[in-house]
Recover the amino acids of this structure.
């Protein structure tokens, strides 16, 4: 994570997903923390073909808004917007590995990169 007020920081994350309707609807929670920051991000997403849309909320900084973009063949490319933030998100999934990259120029965390591996439990 690259915060606007300092150098890059290592973060640890845990993600949980709930599929409500296979290939149609899901919710997820992403909890991340570093030495100085904590982030609790949740989203509800609907999919229609390759188009995705939904809502998000980050509870530590009390920000929320809309998500929209595309999802196809393990690649999600989306725009996340709120009253005070706009970001581009790319999520790649392959087998038990997922990479998450967020770019939000001008935001308190201008870049976030997360590598997730399913723990098999």
């Amino acid at each position: 994570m690259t915060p606007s007020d300092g150098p890059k920081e290592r973060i640890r994350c845990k993600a949980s997903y709930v599929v409500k309707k296979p290939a149609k609807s899901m919710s997820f929670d992403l909890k991340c923390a570093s030495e100085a920051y904590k982030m609790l991000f949740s989203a509800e997403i609907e999919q229609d073909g390759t188009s995705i849309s939904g809502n998000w909320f980050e509870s530590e900084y009390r920000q929320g808004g809309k998500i929209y973009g595309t999802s196809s063949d393990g690649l999600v490319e989306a725009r996340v917007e709120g009253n005070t933030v706009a970001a581009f998100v790319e999520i790649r999934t392959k087998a038990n590995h997922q990479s998450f990259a967020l770019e939000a120029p001008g935001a308190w965390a201008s870049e976030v990169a997360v590598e997730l591996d399913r723990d098999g439990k």
The mean pLDDT is 87.
